[in-house]
Structure formats: structure tokens, C-alpha cells
Amino acid sequence: MPTWLVTGTSRGIGLELVRQLAAKDANTVIATCRSPSSAAALGELASAHKNLHVIPLDITSEESIREAFEAVKGLLGPSGSIDYLINNAGIGSGETIVDATPAEMERQFRTHVIGPMLVFRTFLPLVEAGSRKVVVNVTSGLASIGLDIGPKNASYSIAKAGMNMLTYKTARQYPHITIFVMDPGWVKTEMGGPDAMIDADFAVSKHIQLYEAAKLETHAGKFWSYEGKELPW
């Protein structure tokens, strides 16, 4: 019975991910978000699925991350572990370098680099105890220099590129953990917008297939598309 921990589950990709995971009774799903009390759709899902547990976690707060870790430990018990840690929480930003502000750059970096780093370090003991030891940082194709996407979404792209390097460094330091970054595709969510190319239910089904098929020798330290293709850094 694999245990999944997913950040950023109040809406969008994260919400759809826990919806599909919780539909399988064999999964234990720990869904985290900044404010569970205001996440109505997530609360409805938790009421319908006994294997879905909601924990407050603000990835921009080290104290919140530590408190979430203690709550998860209490939930899972002394022999508990995490098989899949999915750092999904994120925020969008559409400006270019011309109008990017230092405050927005800092907000993006804290959300997409510092937050995932602290979540990984804090929950590492539970990941180490798991049988799968899969960690996924959800990045973006906009973070790829090789794809040459241009000047748009500057601060977001720069922060996601930082997430990519964080993942590479972590994979090299922990060679026994299957840690990689995944571009989820341009998905029709509140963040992706109505012009996005992929429906959330289809995209997330592909995400889960990639996560469950991930192997240390083939996936660790690499940049993958939701379709299972390796992308250029």
C-alpha cells in the first residue's frame, strides 16, 4: 500500500492528482495545502475517501513545514513512511525581465526553490523509510533553456530553472533516491488558463503513470515531460 504526500492540493493539478490517487483504495494519500479550511473541493474529497488525509502546509514557512512533518508522523505512526513525495505547489507569474520586480523574483524563488528544498529535507526520514523513495519536483517546460521558449514568464521560468538545479544537486547527493523534475504540460487549470492544451484529468493520469514507472537507474536526476520523454535542461 503506497503512501503519497502531495503539496499544493487545494486546486488545479494537485487537486486532480489526489482525486485520482484517492480513488484507489490501496493508496494512502496525504494532501497538503496552505489553508485546508478554505479548500472546499479538497474537503469534499476527504469526506468521500477514508484513505485521503488533509494536512496544513505552507511551503513558504519553515515552521509550517516542520509542523506538517510532525502531523504526518503522528498520522502514519512509528513505522510509517512515504513512497512518493510530490512537490507540486506553485504560483504563476507572467511578466518579462523588463517589468519583473525584485519582490516577485523573491516570491517565485521562495515558492519554487526554497520551499521544495525544505520540504525534501524535512520529510527525508519518511522518504528514506519508504520502499519506492520517489521524489518529484513539478517544474515547467518554461524552465528549459534548450527548448528556447523566449522572454515570457521571466521570474517564474528563472525560479523553475532553479528548481531544476536543486533537483540535479539533490539527486547527486542522494543517489539511492529516485528524484527528478517533470514538466506537467500546459494544463487547463486556474493557473494554466482556459487556452491550455490539456485537460487536467488526462494530464494527471499521465503524471501518475510516470511516477509509478519511475526507476532509479533511468529517471533520477533528469528532466521529464508528462509524456515520459526526456527534456533538455
Q: Can you lay out the helices and strands and say which pair or pack?
A:
Blueprint: E1 3-6, H1 12-22, E2 28-33, H2 40-48, E3 52-56, H3 62-76, E4 84-87, H4 102-129, E5 134-138, H5 154-173, E6 178-183, H6 200-213, H7 216-219, E7 223-225
Parallel strand pairs: 1-2, 1-4, 2-3, 4-5, 5-6, 6-7
Helix pairs in contact: 1-6, 3-4, 4-5
Explain what this protein looks like in three dimensions:
Helix 3 packs parallel to helix 4 (102-129) and helix 4 packs parallel to helix 5. The chain has a single domain (3-82, 102-225), classed as 3-Layer(aba) Sandwich (Rossmann fold), CATH 3.40.50. By secondary structure, the chain is of the alpha/beta class. It is globular and about 50 Å long. The chain is built from seven helices and seven strands; from the N terminus they run E-H-E-H-E-H-E-H-E-H-E-H-H-E. A seven-stranded parallel sheet has the order 3-2-1-4-5-6-7, sandwiched between helices.
Keywords:
alpha/beta; 43% helix; Rossmann fold; single chain; 14% strand; 7 strands; 233 residues
Summarize the structure.
With about 230 residues, the protein is α/β, with parallel strands linked by helices. It is built from seven helices and seven strands, in the order E-H-E-H-E-H-E-H-E-H-E-H-H-E. The chain is about 45% helix and about 15% strand.
Could you please say which CATH topology applies here? Answer: Rossmann fold
Termini gap: 34 Å
How many domains, as an integer?
Answer: 1
Overall geometry comes to globular
**SSE order, as H and E?**
EHEHEHEHEHEHHE
CATH architecture: 3-Layer(aba) Sandwich
**Percent helix:** 40-55%
What is the count of helical runs? Answer: 7
Largest pleated sheet? 7 strands, parallel
Beta fraction: 5-15%
Find the structural class using helix and strand composition: alpha/beta
Q: What is the CATH H-level superfamily?
A: NAD(P)-binding Rossmann-like Domain
The low-confidence runs, each spanning 5 or more residues with pLDDT under 50, are none
Q: What is the mean predicted local confidence, pLDDT?
A: 95
Gyration radius, in Å? 17 Å
